[in-house]
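User: Could you go from structure to sequence for me? I need the amino acid at each position, not a summary. Structure tokens:
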């Protein structure tokens, strides 16, 4: 384990923003913190990065690195009139690191930015600024990184590219990565584990696949022969080309799939839970 927070509380005057939040992050793991606007995500990240003090609770970072934790909170704060390389040089110096031009260029290449571009970063797209923010967070080789809403303002291709880079950082460099978002599309496929936060409380946590399944109220079933299925004949289902969208409140999806596979003439290729955001953010009874 690289990072652990236990029972962290934070209030602003009478507003309880974090009400006993606990989470863990392991080496090489990508962990998501998902919650609606105002749930307390940025406040928690600020506390993890030491930018804001907590009222109570514990915070432990198990790392030998000179910079155990790096991160970006909201949008990366950059010097708009400087180039990417110059920005990186300034932030490296602030962090006590004197890098050669070749080393700075290499850091830019690592996050997919071209060192040949020498114009001011105010000209950069949001995706490029996010990448530069990531390069700054990665200076001094932290063992874990927290990224607050790193996909905000990116188009679907930008999101996919940044997701790939995050996977590479976790996989090849073994960095533990904690990412916040209020968007499931951004975190669902990417994360090993998810924490769901609402009104300052972690209301669910566990393997991402399990969390997504718990909050699913419909399933997209891919296969052949589905339209003729007896199992689906009495179900609440919408047939599409090559798939069926099954709305399912009560019965177990595994039972339905078992019935389907035992029917002659049906071949199943996949079943994808369609997670309902409202259900995900709903507090579980008890
Ligand atoms: N410095 C502050 N002073 C007073 N209230 C604050 C402060 N910082 C955050 N808050 C309040 O704490 C609550 C949680 O804010 P926070 O930014 O942590 O949420 P969030 O989950 O990151 O939201 P979003 O997804 O909209 O960024 C909000 O009600 C916010 O107004």
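Assistant: Here is the amino acid at each position, in order:
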């Amino acid at each position: 384990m690289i990072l652990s927070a236990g029972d962290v509380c934070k209030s602003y005057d009478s507003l309880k923003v974090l009400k006993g939040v606990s989470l863990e992050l392991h080496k090489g793991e990508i962990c998501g913190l998902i919650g609606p606007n105002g749930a307390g995500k940025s406040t928690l990240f600020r506390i993890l990065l030491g930018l804001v003090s907590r009222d109570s609770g514990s915070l432990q970072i198990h790392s030998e690195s000179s910079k155990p934790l790096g991160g970006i909170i909201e949008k990366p704060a950059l010097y708009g009139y400087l180039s990417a390389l110059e920005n990186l040089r300034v932030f490296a110096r602030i962090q006590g690191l004197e890098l050669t031009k070749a080393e700075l260029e290499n850091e830019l290449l690592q996050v997919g930015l071209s060192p040949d571009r020498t114009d001011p970063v105010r000209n950069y797209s949001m995706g490029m600024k996010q990448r530069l923010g990531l390069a700054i967070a990665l200076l001094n080789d932290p063992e874990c990184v927290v990224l607050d809403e790193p996909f905000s303002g990116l188009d679907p291709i930008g999101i996919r590219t940044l997701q790939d880079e995050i996977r590479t950082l976790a996989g090849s460099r073994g960095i533990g990565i904690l990412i916040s978002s209020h968007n499931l599309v951004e975190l669902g496929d990417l994360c090993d584990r998810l924490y769901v936060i609402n009104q300052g409380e972690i209301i669910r946590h566990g393997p991402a696949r399990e969390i997504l399944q718990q909050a699913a109220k419909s399933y997209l079933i891919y296969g052949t022969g589905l339209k003729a299925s007896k199992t689906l004949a009495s179900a609440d289902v919408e047939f599409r080309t090559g798939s069926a969208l099954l709305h399912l409140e009560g019965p177990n999806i595994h039972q339905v799939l078992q019935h389907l596979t035992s029917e002659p003439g049906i071949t199943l290729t996949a079943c994808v839970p369609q997670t309902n955001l409202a259900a995900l953010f709903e507090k579980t009874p008890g």
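One structural detail worth keeping in mind: Residues 215-281 form one domain.
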